[in-house]
Amino acid sequence: MNKKLIISLLAISTFLVGCGADATPVKKPEVNVGIPDDCTSAKILAALPSSIPDPKFIDTKWQPAQGTDLFNALNSGGIACSYGNQQAEIGTTIIWAPSDKANFDQMATKWSSLSQIDIPGVNETSAYWSGNEATSADDRHMWLINLLYKNIWIQVNASFVYKMEDALPIINAAIGSLTNG
Question: Using an 8 Å Cβ cutoff, are 157 and 96 in contact?
């Protein structure tokens, strides 16, 4: 009798599944991402080159001037985190902030010294970088990229990067630090 019951249940479930099948393809849910919860949860330290001696998270009390990228990022719910060797003055600062394409494009109007670029192997919406020969006003080397990735604005500043290939591990770690919003 158990055999008949099992066969009957299988036949009924097959019939119900067949009758209720919907021909409409299932839409994949859009994966929302968010900024890292805090600077220590980001994956940046592991991506720093071995040439930086004893790198650490550098806890910084930000006091940005109004109108700067840092001010805009922090005031839109973003975070800014520095990593490296503070005594050696070598490292990186990463900004993560929520943004959409329209807001990112508006900010890009201030980045007139940066060139638009497609980052190799990264599926960013848009990116602007300082180029391979970037230096600061006091002749210290400073490299910068702003990118929009899944409605998150990521800015990478680094004192040890001289070409895009050097920056890719940090860029990928910054993207890999995003959370499932």
Answer: no
